[in-house]
Amino acid sequence: MYRVVGVQFKSAGKVYYFDPGGLELTVGMPVIVETARGQEYGTVVQGPKEVSESEVTLPLKTVLRIGTPEDKVQLEENKEREKKAFKIGLEKIAAHNLEMKLIDVEYTFDRSKIIFYFTADGRVDFRELVKDLASVFRTRIELRQIGVRDEAKMLSGLGPCGRPLCCATFLGDFEPVSIKMAKEQNLSLNPAKISGICSRLMCCLKFESESYRSAKQQAQPAAPEEDNSYVELEEDGLYLLEDTPESEPGQGETSRGTSSEVEPE
């Protein structure tokens, strides 16, 4: 077992586990951690707890220190730098005449790397673009191609329900969504009605499907109680009233009673 804390770097972002070391950390605390791409500023969203080895990625990185007001100022400065870098990125993409759409720009907290997120219909040869950007910013440059779901999460917006997108407000990870989930919820199979603004099946079909299954199980009709005023006589497969006399053989058709059973719908 490992003692960890859950740290989140973006609102509605994925939660990552880190070793708290000797620090006394509580939910809501800002922290500086070492990641694969450099130092990052995050927030503790899960307090110290024990998890199994299968739940962590080894080697487990340690929280470097608790964030300070100065770190908060640097984070705000990075956001201003990102806006300027975004404009320059658009200009350079246009200058190189590349078929790609710039979505977002992100500085690592220590400014050791700038990440440009973009979408494109296919593969893009951006080697010359990277060199051009590196000559401008004098730091490491990474261009990362993302999908339409990630684009919607970054840009946010309003869904067909009129509320902010689930992926941009509280969903940390994307999970597979199938058309079967729409069928279970008795929704129209018209793609325009069950697709989000990313043109993929709506994420809510996934996290609401279990609620619909539970509701359907609870709504199943109970088995009818046995009515003692009727007796099943194994004679020609008929159900007869208890006080109905049996007809003598050869005396014509047996009297029929009313069955108490309910045919399943």
Topology:
Elements: E1 2-8, E2 15-18, E3 30-35, E4 38-51, E5 63-66, H1 69-95, E6 101-107, E7 113-119, H2 127-137, E8 140-145, H3 148-155, H4 166-169, H5 179-184, H6 191-194, H7 204-218, E9 230-232, E10 239-241
Parallel strand pairs: 7-8
Antiparallel strand pairs: 1-2, 1-4, 3-4, 3-5, 6-7, 9-10
Structure, described:
The strands form 3 sheets. A 5-stranded antiparallel β-sheet has the order 2-1-4-3-5, with no helix packed on it. A 3-stranded mixed β-sheet has the order 6-7-8, sandwiched between helices. Strands 9-10 form a two-stranded antiparallel sheet. Helix 1 crosses helix 2. The protein is flat, with a radius of gyration of 32 Å. It contains 7 helices and 10 strands. By secondary structure, it is α+β, with helices and mostly antiparallel strands.
Number of E-type strands: 10
Structural class: alpha+beta
**What does the main sheet amount to?**
5 strands, antiparallel
| H/I helix tally | 7
Strand order of the largest sheet: 2-1-4-3-5
The shape is flat
User: Gyration radius, to the nearest Å?
Assistant: 32 Å
Mean pLDDT: 82
- Which ranges are low-confidence, i.e. pLDDT below 50, for 5 or more consecutive residues? 228-265
Order of helices and strands: EEEEEHEEHEHHHHHEE
> How much helical structure, as a percent, in the residues?
25-40%
Strand content: 15-25%
Terminal residue distance:
52 Å
